[in-house]
Design a protein that fits this description.
Elements: E1 4-8, E2 14-18, H1 22-51, H2 56-62, H3 69-85, H4 87-94, H5 100-105, E3 107-111, H6 119-127, H7 129-132, H8 139-147, H9 154-159, E4 161-165, H10 168-181, H11 188-200, H12 206-219, H13 229-243
């Protein structure tokens, strides 16, 4: 099973995102479900206050004899239904691949090229919720995510989308790439090496990253003073960040 989706920008800079599994999907969905339910309940409560309705029993009893029966149907039932079923497609389009639940869970929707999906792709993805939710509680959709290559449900397969984790490193990488694009003191190859080294810094062993960082700085004409590995680790990393425009 693939654990990452990779994208290479026009200037040759590579980015990688980790695929989100069924657990993160479920967590985000549960949060969004509670938000939808809260919105519906708040709407119904407000409309009941506006219409002067005290209880649902009074509503049901009076709706057939009161002249405001149509108002009850339109204001109490139709808007909450629309609110509930259009929650995901509307917010995913407006928030460019997010919902509040996905933001909290730290995941987002991307297409297979690593870009923000189009509105049509997001609509297709949500139309297939009707299939993924069969026979109940998204049983089919969750089952498909377990066995598919990139943990995707049927809606994702139809729309060409995936769910990935959005980490601070992703945002940082984009910022670095922007800074490097206007940095004319290094070749494009050196810029790519610098970006890759900063991205991988924390997952490399300290002595290895100090060695790689030192070689890179020497390669671009920087002076590297020998010191303890601990001190060099901090000094070299700070210098790399400064070259990338992060400091």
């Amino acid at each position: 099973m693939d654990e990452n989706i990779k994208m290479t920008s026009a200037d040759g800079v590579s980015f990688s995102w980790e695929i989100a599994g069924a657990g993160s999907r479920s967590y985000a969905f549960i949060i969004d479900w509670h938000i939808r339910l809260l919105l519906v309940l708040v709407w119904i409560g407000l409309m009941m206050l506006i219409l002067g309705i005290d209880t649902f029993s009074n509503t049901l009893r009076d709706s057939f004899i009161d002249e405001d029966a149509d108002k009850f149907v339109y204001l109490i039932t139709i808007p909450p239904t629309i609110m509930y079923f259009l929650y995901h497609p509307i917010l995913e389009i407006l928030m460019r691949g997010y919902t509040p639940g996905k933001r909290i869970a730290g995941i987002k929707i991307m297409n297979i090229d690593g870009e923000v999906p189009s509105s049509s792709a997001l609509l297709i993805r949500n139309i297939f919720r009707l299939v993924d939710s069969l026979p109940f509680l998204y049983t089919l959709g969750l089952a498909v995510t377990v066995f598919t290559k990139q943990s995707v449900r049927i809606g994702d397969l139809a729309a060409g989308t995936v769910l990935v984790y959005e980490t601070k490193t992703d945002s940082q990488s984009i910022k670095i790439a922007t800074q490097l694009a206007i940095n004319q003191t290094m070749s494009s190859q050196d810029q790519i090496l610098l970006l890759d080294l900063i991205d991988r810094w924390k997952i490399l062993q300290k002595d290895k990253r100090v060695k790689l960082g030192s070689k890179f700085l020497i390669k671009i004409g920087e002076n590297v003073q020998q010191d303890s590995v601990k001190n060099m680790d901090t000094t070299i990393y700070d210098r790399l960040c400064l070259l990338a425009g992060m400091k």
